[in-house]
Amino acid sequence: MQDVLDPGQTEKLIAQRLLEARHRRGWTLAEAAEANGVSVTHLSRLERGERQPSIGVLIQLAWSYGLPLGQLVGEEPQTACHVFRGGEAPLHDGPDYKYAALSGITGLNLLEAIRLELPGSSRTSRAAQHVGEEWLLVHSGRVRVEIGSESFDLEPGDAAHFDAQSPHRICNRGRARATVFIVSASSPARRGNGHK
């Protein structure tokens, strides 16, 4: 059975880890906001637990701080291999959908993998936009993916690969729950952006 973390606890934990990660990096709030393409106000609210970060913002912050996404959402750091057993990865409440982090090799996080659980007949997610590229695979259900001005209807087994800097969003087109696996790859040039 999957663990579903209490949303309030998750937000507080993520807020604390975001603040600690920025301090470890030695960045001011303004430097971190600029490096991540978010406003100082928004980042400050995330660090105080007043706002719930979107998946795209979490991925961007994890990359810029040099952390696996799993560490930011409260999972324990792993060693050389991070193994996931079926549905054992804990589900977190995101602003749009529940998600589970499926990656977490400290220091090697050029890839971030997540599993999204989209309830039936759900609303369209907020647009995400972050550096790097993204690959998604529909495991179950029927979804629509909007990338820039284009939209694609995907069925189980269908995949999409795109530049994550294009605004993108996803919605469940069916009545049953849909499960989507997403792998995001950061840009090596972005990781070496000169910020200390």
Question: Mind explaining what this structure looks like?
Answer:
With 196 residues, the chain is of the alpha+beta class. The protein has two domains: 7-73, Orthogonal Bundle (434 Repressor (Amino-terminal Domain)); 92-185, Jelly Rolls (Sandwich). It is 28% helix and 26% strand. The protein is built from six helices and nine strands; from the N terminus they run αααααβββββββββα. The chain has helices at residues 7-25, 29-36, 40-47, 55-65, 69-72, 188-191, and strands at residues 92-93, 98-101, 111-118, 133-140, 143-147, 150-154, 159-163, 168-172, 178-185. The longest helix is centred in the N-terminal third of the chain and has 19 residues, at 7-25. It starts with 6 loop residues before the first helix and ends in a 5-residue tail after the last helix. 35% of the residues are buried. Residues 1-5 and 188-196 have low confidence and may be disordered.
Provide tags for this entry.
globular, alpha+beta, 434 Repressor (Amino-terminal Domain), 2 domains, 6 helices, Jelly Rolls, 28% helix, 26% strand, 3-stranded antiparallel sheet, 196 residues, 6-stranded antiparallel sheet, disordered C terminus
Q: Tell me the radius of gyration.
A: 16 Å
Q: Name the beta content range.
A: 25-35%
Question: What's the structural domain tally?
Answer: 2
The fourth-level CATH homologous superfamily of the largest domain is Jelly Rolls
CATH class of the largest domain: Mainly Beta
**Backbone shape:** globular
Order of helices and strands: HHHHHEEEEEEEEEH
- Give the fraction of residues assigned to helices: 25-40%
Number of E-type strands: 9
Q: Work out the oligomeric state of the chains in this entry.
A: single chain
Largest sheet: 6 strands, antiparallel
Overall structural class, as computed from helix and strand content, comes to alpha+beta
Low-confidence runs (pLDDT<50, min 5 residues)? 1-5, 188-196
What name does CATH use for the topology of the largest domain? Jelly Rolls
CATH architecture of the largest domain: Sandwich
Placed side by side, the strands forming the largest sheet appear as 1-2-3-9-4-7
Q: How far apart are the termini?
A: 41 Å
Put simply, the count of helices is 6
Mean pLDDT across residues: 79
Domain HTH cro/C1-type: 18-72
Keywords: DNA-binding
Protein name: XRE family transcriptional regulator
GO molecular function: DNA binding; DNA-binding transcription factor activity
